[in-house]
């Protein structure tokens, strides 16, 4: 007499015959570690853009003396016009700097030097701080309200650590980033836009953080007429300003440790 196999009540899944559509569907499933070719194709334009930016930045650094010569000659030719229309030119440079400060290539640094050349130390520092505030707010607002979905989908994982740190210690994170100037200015704006930091805290940290560098840029611009190469900017005043910047960069860490 043939015995029937014991029935297991926990195994109630239907068994599909070989060659069924279910087996074909399983065969089409990719392994968990495999990445679709489409993702590489979608990422290719971003890699090309990054390569172009790296090459542009390298070319900018290699031709720093030539850029300085061109900027000095242009500034000397237009200094009388700027002085005759100081208010309009101040506002025009503010608008241009607000846009340039969100550019990966450091065009805004040149504008901040020119601010010190055209308007002097006090007005140059004020213009540089205003550029940073308006440009930072524009970058944060554009990231948060216009490009949040696309940027979060593309760079969310890359900036996840920075966004988490900014959500926890937003004020101190932004202040340290502005003082140290290691992280590009526009990347801090993007990370802030992807995080939940309040705009008021972001602006306060940005304003305080860019004060030392704004002073250095304006001080450098005051000597633009005498310099011929980038190394000519080195002076006792410049060394003192850099030392002040280094001291200011340590203050946020000390304040956080005490808090």
From TrEMBL:
Residue numbers spanned by region Disordered: 1-37
Keyword Transmembrane on entry: yes
Chief location category: membrane
Limits of the VTT domain: 106-221
Ranges annotated as spanning the membrane: 44-62, 82-101, 113-142, 171-190, 202-218, 238-255
GO cellular component: plasma membrane
UniProt xrefs under InterPro entries: TMEM64, VTT_dom
Keyword Membrane in record: yes
Localization per record: Cell membrane
Pfam families: VTT_dom (PF09335)
Keywords: Cell membrane, Membrane, Transmembrane, Transmembrane helix
Record's bilayer topology term: Multi-pass membrane protein
Family: Belongs to the TVP38/TMEM64 family.
Protein name according to UniProt: TVP38/TMEM64 family membrane protein
Organism: Fundidesulfovibrio magnetotacticus
């Amino acid at each position: 007499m043939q015995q029937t196999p014991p029935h297991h009540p926990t195994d109630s899944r239907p068994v599909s015959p070989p060659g069924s559509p279910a087996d074909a569907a399983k065969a089409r499933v990719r392994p968990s570690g495999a990445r679709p070719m489409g993702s590489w194709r979608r990422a290719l334009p971003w890699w090309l853009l990054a390569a172009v930016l790296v090459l542009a930045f390298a070319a900018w650094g290699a031709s720093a003396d030539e850029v300085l010569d061109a900027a000095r000659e242009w500034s000397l030719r237009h200094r009388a016009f700027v002085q005759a229309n100081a208010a309009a030119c101040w506002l025009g440079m503010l608008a241009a700097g607000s846009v340039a400060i969100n550019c990966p290539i450091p065009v805004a640094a040149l504008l901040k030097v020119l601010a010190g050349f055209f308007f002097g130390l006090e007005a140059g520092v004020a213009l540089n701080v205003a550029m940073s505030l308006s440009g930072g707010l524009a970058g944060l607002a554009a990231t948060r309200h216009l490009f949040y979905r696309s940027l979060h989908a593309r760079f969310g994982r890359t900036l996840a650590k920075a966004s988490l740190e900014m959500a926890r210690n937003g004020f101190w994170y932004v202040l340290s980033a502005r003082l140290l100037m290691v992280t590009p200015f526009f990347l801090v704006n993007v990370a802030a836009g992807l995080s939940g930091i309040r705009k008021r805290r972001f602006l306060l940290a940005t304003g305080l953080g860019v004060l030392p560098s704004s002073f250095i840029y304006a001080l450098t611009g005051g000597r633009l007429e005498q310099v011929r190469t980038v190394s000519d900017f080195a002076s006792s005043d410049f060394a003192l300003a850099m030392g002040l910047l280094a001291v200011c960069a340590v203050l946020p860490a000390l304040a956080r440790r005490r808090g």
